Each structure stands twice: as structure tokens, then as C-alpha cells.
Amino acid sequence: AAIDVKEGVISPGLIGYDMNCGMRLLTSELTADFIQSKLDAVATEIQKEVPSGLGKGRQLKFNIATMDRILEGGTEFIIGRGYGDAEDLANCEERGKMRDAHANFVWEKAKRRGSDQAGTLGSGNHFLEIQKVDQIFDEEAGKALGLFQNQAVMMIHTGSRGLGHQNAADYIRRMVEAMRAYNIKIPDRELACVPFFSPEGRKYFGALACGSNFAWANRQMITHFARVAWKRILGDAGGKLRTAYDVAHNTAKIEEHLVDGVKKKLIVHRKGATRAYPAGHTDIPEKYRSYGQPVFIPGSMGTASYVLMGTPRGKETFFTTCHGSGRRLSRHAAIRQLSPKEIVRNLEAKGIRIKCWNLRGVAEEAPAAYKDIEEVIDVVHNTGISRKVARLTPLAVIKGE
Fold it and tell me: Is 165 among the catalytic positions?
């Protein structure tokens, strides 16, 4: 949803509870064949280093003062604490920090919920996968991303955890109350909204920026601990895991777009959708600027994920692409209809390792619960809103409950 900044509204429900849920792709110097004999050990070590599951946190816990600095500093602050390097920062959307963040717009309950969750995976459809590059469709763009055939790579999918969820819940409740003053009527409280330039709207936008920054910091810390696990098992032979790119979904940003031939400032809400700028856009890191912005669309566990690039045709969707294949079964329906043990057996028969503390999560996120990723990607590619660069297939999947 792209809404006029001057006259329009901002709505948490058009963004999502998990502020800046997003995808990060790490590339290795190794082939999938090289790590095969140690794959289970690597996956087990990552599961130890990166807590996963509903409400799970780390022993490392930040106080409120430090949380405020994370909320306003994002990836930049976390890297300054030793959890990454300049290359990580350069290859992250917004360089991992939205500058409209105001930590005082986030309630203390949300900060406390997130205080031990930086560097954790969470539950639901969040995952960390070790994958292999199965097919490359665009050699030049693939090379720019550091991809090669049969390469071992790693994909991280998670967001702002309990902090983002609490943040969204707090502001939806506040907006439901505030709408009366603006004479706004909606059919569902989850669509609660206020004028963007209202006090409530500006505060929510500042809090959203904080949630986004926390999510980028979270993925950065996961990257750090995944690297620790990778090196512990593979040693110097493992080389370096490099950040190819980190892209957000479940966000809202102020952007300029042409509307009926007129350039306008819009607040672009992207729920379950990712930004996909075309080649030449100044918000793309320079190394990718001549190809387009990297876009990652994962399938479900056991199916392929795709790397794509944004295109000029994307202007029809305000340079937006879906972030995943989308569910065809609700979580409750998947639990009723699918057998977790059978799913694990089927995946293991394909050579895919599963690391999950609770099999309930396996049923919820089974391949049968999602649309066919190949059909989804064909639609995205053939309509021209993003173009295929590479296909990635899973070797090992680490999930929460």
C-alpha cells in the first residue's frame, strides 16, 4: 500500500507485528560437496550458538540504556560492539539503520521483551538454512553477489522478535483509541490507522524505525554466532562467510514515486513484501547498482529459495515484490493434517537435515503447507517485477518450535 504522506495515514496492520522481518544471505568460499561430511556437525553447532523457539533468548542480556542505543543505532551500533565488519554494513538495506528511530517512542515492556533476544531466531516460519547454489540464471549478477555453482551458502530469516510484536500491539491499541479524534472508521481493529503527520502517527513511525533497527541488529548478531559455529567445526578451511545482502519486509518507508506522471512522497507499507529497486537506484549498494537490488524469496523448508534482482517494471508495484511463497494451509490446518515425523523422514530421504527443538514447528512449516515456490517465482519473473538470478536448495534447516 502506497499512501500519500501529506494527506494519508499510516497503519501498523499494513506492516505487520514482526517489524522488519527480513532475509540475509551469507556466501562461503566452499562447495556443498566439501562441507557434506561435516554438515550435520555444522548445523548442530549453529543450533547451539543461535537460540531458536518461541520466546527463547540468549544468556547475553542488554540493559535498557544499551537497548536504546541498539534501537537507534541498529547494525552500526552492534558492529561497533564487535559483532561484524564494514562489509556487513555496506551490504545491508539502509546500511542497517533507519534514521527516524526514537527510542523514547518505544514502551519499556517492549524493550524488556527484546533485551535477551538479539542474536536469536524465534519461531514460526523463521529459519536459518545451509543451502547450495543449485542453478544460476544470470552469471554477471550472480558473480557480483559472490555466487558460483554448487556453492555452500547460508540464509537467515527472522525479525524483531518480541520487541517488534509488543511495539506493534502497543501502537494498534493506541491508534484504536486515537481514531475517534480523526473521525476514522474501519471494519477491523487490525487495520487501525492515524494520519501520518499526527502525533500518534509520527511516534509510531519512530517506534517502527526502532523495531526495524533491532531486527537488523538481530540478524547481524546471528551472522556473528553462525560464523563462530562455522569456524569451530570447519576451522581455517571454512574461510569467511560474507554478507551478500540483507533486505527487509514488514516495513514502511517514505519514498518518492511517480503517480499519474507526478512525483509524490508516499509512505510505502510492505507487509509480507520486500523492496525491489531497479538498476541505477542510489539506495542500492554500489557493487550491485548496475544490476538491481538483490531480492530473496524463500520457499518452505525442503523446497528451493531464490535470489532475484529488482527491475524497472517494478514501478507498477512501487518497486515491491513478495517475500515468500505464501501459505495454502493455516498453521492449525497444517498441524491437523500433516505428520511431523513423516515430514522429517521425507526430508531426510532427500538428504536434508532438520534441527528443531519441537516437531510442532515442522508441521506448521511443512512444504505441503505452502504454495509451490516454482510457480510463485515464475509469476514474479514473467511479470517482470523481479528477475531470477539463482536457485538455492536446502542442505540443513535450523528452526524454532
Answer: no
Q: Is the pTM of this model over 0.85?
A: yes
Among 55, 247, 324, CA closest to 166:
55
Pairwise pLDDT comparison (312 vs 330), residue with the higher score: 312
313: Cα within 13 Å, side-chain hemisphere:
10
Using DSSP's 3-state secondary structure scheme, residue 294 falls into strand
Collapsing DSSP states into helix, strand and coil, what is residue 360? helix
Task: Choose, from 157, 323, 332, 381, the residue flagged as catalytic.
Answer: 323
In this prediction, residue 342 has a pLDDT band, given cuts at 50, 70 and 90, of confident
Yes or no: say if 278 and 294 are a contact pair by the CB < 8 Å rule.
no
Model confidence at 131, pLDDT cuts 50, 70, 90, reads: very high
**CB 84 within 8 Å of CB 90:** no
CA end-to-end span of the chain, whole Å? 32
Q: How many CB atoms lie within 10 A of CB 393?
A: 19
